[in-house]
Model the fold of this input.
Amino acid sequence: MKRFYPFFTVSTVFIVIFALSSCAARIEGALAADGSAVLSVNMSLENRMASLIRLLSDAGGQTGVPVLDGPAIARSMADAPGIASVSFRNTSSTAIEGQVRISRINDFLSPANGRGFITFEQTTSGGRFEVNINRQTSPAIIELLSSEISDYLNALMAPIASGEVMTRSEYLEIVSTFYNVGISDEIAFSRIRATIDFPGTITSIRGGTFSGRRANFDISLLDLLVLETPMIFEVRW
Done:
């Protein structure tokens, strides 16, 4: 298995913690019929992970800065495929809020061959939206967002970056050994909750619940990091 042990600069930590770490995250947004989207994001770090990042920052000589830096995160995401604009601000040293505008959802983190992990179709009679993340495609997705994230997650042995076959229990054991049980426990219980409005009245959903045009998703961070089975979400309207 490929493993990296990079120098943990503060900027690296900021980017990684936003993308995949021990956190509580809430996403609300709307997907338009032309494939554009607007997302509002609220996220905060759990206590043990925040403490770990503070220790890493202090060890690197970076003190007196937010553990989670909203503007720095926005800059790191600005050039990712499919993103029109990103704006984040700090509500505390360990929490951020802001907005992400996506120009075309099909292009979001899509590689050069155009085969991304999101499918969006809109016709006069209805539409379909699907997200499919698996070990085969996820390393390329992570690399498009940030090569630093890819290297960091390989250091954490996360299958979403390495593509390695691993169970959730095996992954938590590795994290608890490399860091501590507190960190692995926070990852195990962290959730990403999303509420998205779609262009029409929803008729069916996979991986969530719905009412009218609104879909709700409650995603386990551990499931996303490990991808023991592919994560597939589908909405039809």
In short: The longest strand covers residues 83-92. The chain is about 35% helix and 30% strand.
